[in-house]
């Protein structure tokens, strides 16, 4: 390519047409219109002004470029096409304005986690037969003699003797209420003479039924039911201490306000009756094993229930098994409580 004589003969050398137009490597010059506003592949009109690229050369400059191309080769040609007056510049630099350091977003001050309110310590209350270790059950001897004289079952008699031996010389046993049954923990004392009535089909006293109620409550911790204390609300207390009875009902109602049912084992005139209170429907179900068309007026506790819950109730006598003798009522109340806690509380209307 540096040979002047052969450079024009080189097939790779670009051809130039002297007519108006720009250089073409194929020897073809695109026609340029006289109208400066017409766009071609090399010229573009914008706002009636033609903006030329630094790589667009005039005829003289173009001729000089071709001569340089012939003499110095392709690399020199590229260098000669640099705009006039351009000097090698520094390496590319990016003018980046300094950005302010991001400020951390203000974080809210951590709030102290709410601490659960301390639960008041449950108090121990002796509510039945306040006695000491030297207390003697005046009825125990008579009951033991009755068992020995009338019991024909050796196995049952052995169980009675074993129970007396487990008492460790004491003539009573004590039973504490499970946690959460009452606002305050209650300690019930059961004389052995009342406990052994279970073995001879005897009438069940308040202490025994209450102990069964505490055991059944403890066996069903997720129950929908709460209990009134039969020791506090039996008929004698309704007559002797009406204010105490009404206050107890209010306390239990507030303490177990999340419960759906309230079970009330009620002892009056040597007879047991179970009441099932459903405050949500303002209904009280009477479960009585001696059903002689009784109404709520037959029970002193009825007025205390309505006063304690501060509403009137619809009283419904439920159909239930009836007792044949005069001693079964306590056992039937225990049975009804057990059945209600096991199944009826979940589908009461279809099972009562």
Automatic annotation (TrEMBL):
UniProt keyword Hydrolase present: yes
Protein name: Ubiquitin-like protease family profile domain-containing protein
Keywords of this entry: Hydrolase, Protease
Gene Ontology BP annotations: proteolysis
Region (Disordered): 1-58, 80-120
Native source species: Deinandra increscens subsp. villosa
SUPFAM superfamilies tied to this protein: Cysteine proteinases
Domain Ubiquitin-like protease family profile span(s) in chain numbering: 188-340
Feature: compositional bias, Polar residues: 38-53
Gene3D superfamilies, A to Z: Adenoviral Proteinase, Chain A (3.40.395.10)
Pfam short name (any one): Peptidase_C48
